[in-house]
Design brief:
This protein has about 400 residues and is an alpha/beta fold. The chain has 13 helices and eleven strands. The longest helix has 21 residues. It binds pyridoxal-5'-phosphate (PLP).
């Protein structure tokens, strides 16, 4: 599917269940109990449940028409077999990890992985007898020697959401596939519009839908899209843990998807104007954004992705870091100092990556911007305030 076709699907997909009442959008169906017409109907729905056939379910935990409108559209955009939604992006990451491991197994996780995903691997997986090794996000052939006979999952995140390294997904997925290892990609930065990991050999694509999919900083959600081979294990894990989101949340995520295309084009246009301004400031050493021709991951981005979102990193020159960066961050008025990203409002925070390419070298001089939907000239004026404050710290010294 091309991006144009995907744009059309954003509007027309996920509508099947609306047909009943002729409204454009699906109803919000709330429900736990489903009433069956007969014992035969109970048996039939149970059989369908066990054999994973689409159609009316026998209990609310397995999703309503509202949920399936969202799940079907996600599967279509990602080129996947089935999708599901869980209460946060982190739940999507942790449940996906758990779906493919058991005691005695090992997982390989990129050093650029989202911090709390990384912490789950370090703090929680060992409790269940699962070991974890981290690898450099830009690793190529070196990764081959890190696979062990008991490795079950290869975890990717491309680009990393703090340090923005692009990963060579087709190559890494092929290494994993040759060993029967399940490959999972955290695809939050590129969204289902600009990257389809499954088409590059990945088995499962996860999103913090909290970010661009929902897009308005008003809810938390994670989504999981599987290929046909991995869905049975994923489904078993989700259903045994009893995980689903409310129909209201599913509806809000579906509504977010409707405007994803236009929002992303604006987020990127604003990001590019801000980057141009930032690169002209003498305190800025470099900008981390794969869509920039000077970015080390640019050629991979150009090959694999069809667009860019509005989240990027800025590395200051060594003399401008530390308390001077704090002064910059404290001085802005329009940019919010807050976690998360992908909402309508611009955010600017200092970031301290634990480990990744260049992470220690960046220490104290890396900040991250999520370009929102405000007027870009107002945002540049606000950055000017930040840089004036940073410069004022120099004259004080
Ligand atoms: C935010 C984020 C998550 C977690 O999402 P939450 O909904 O905040 O739990 C996972 N991966 C990435 C890349 C993220 O940025």
């Amino acid at each position: 599917m091309t991006d144009g076709k995907r744009d059309t699907r954003l509007t027309h997909g996920g509508r099947a269940s609306a047909a009943d009442h002729d409204f454009v959008n699906p109803p919000i169906v709330r429900g736990s109990t489903v009433l069956h017409s007969s014992v035969a109907d109970m048996r039939e729905r149970s059989r369908r449940y066990r054999s994973d056939e689409p159609g009316p379910v026998n209990y609310g935990l397995y999703g309503t028409a509202t949920h399936y409108a969202l799940f079907d559209l996600l599967s279509e955009l990602e080129g996947g077999y089935r999708s599901w939604a869980v209460p946060s992006g982190l739940t999507a990451c942790t449940m996906t990890m758990l779906a493919f491991v058991r005691a005695g197994d090992h997982v390989l996780v990129t050093d650029s992985a989202y911090g709390p995903t990384r912490r789950f691997c370090i703090d929680m997986l060992p409790r269940y007898g699962v070991q974890c090794s981290f690898y450099a996000p830009t690793a190529g052939e070196e990764l081959e020697s890190m696979f062990r006979p008991d490795t079950k999952v290869l975890w990717l995140e491309t680009p990393g959401s703090l340090t923005f390294e692009m990963q060579d997904v087709p190559r890494l997925a092929a290494l994993a596939h040759a060993r029967g290892v399940v490959t999972v990609a955290d695809n939050t930065w590129a969204t289902p519009l600009y990257f389809q990991p499954l088409a590059c050999g990945v088995d499962v694509s996860v999103h913090a839908a909290t970010k661009y999919i929902c897009g308005h900083s008003d809810m938390l959600m994670g989504t999981i899209t599987c290929n046909e081979a991995t869905w049975p294990s994923m489904r078993e894990t989700l259903f045994n843990f009893g995980l689903i989101v409310s129909p209201e949340d599913a509806y809000v995520a579906l509504r977010g998807l409707r405007t994803l295309g236009v929002r992303l084009r604006q987020h990127r246009a604003t990001a590019e104007r801000l980057i141009e301004w930032l690169l002209a400031q003498h305190e800025v050493e470099r900008v981390l954004y794969p869509a920039l021709p000077s970015d080390p991951g640019h050629s991979i981005w150009q090959r694999d992705m069809s667009g860019a979102s509005g989240l990027f990193g800025i590395v200051l020159k060594p003399a401008a870091g530390g308390a001077r960066l704090d002064a910059l961050v404290d001085a802005v008025r329009l940019f919010g100092r807050g976690y998360s990203w992908g909402g309508h409002e611009s955010l600017l925070i200092p970031v301290f990556p634990e480990r990744s390419v260049g992470a220690s070298a960046y220490h104290g001089r890396l900040f991250r911007i999520s370009a929102g939907l405000e007027d870009v000239d107002d945002l540049i004026a606000d950055l000017q305030l930040g840089f004036s404050a940073l410069r004022a710290t120099e004259t004080q010294r």
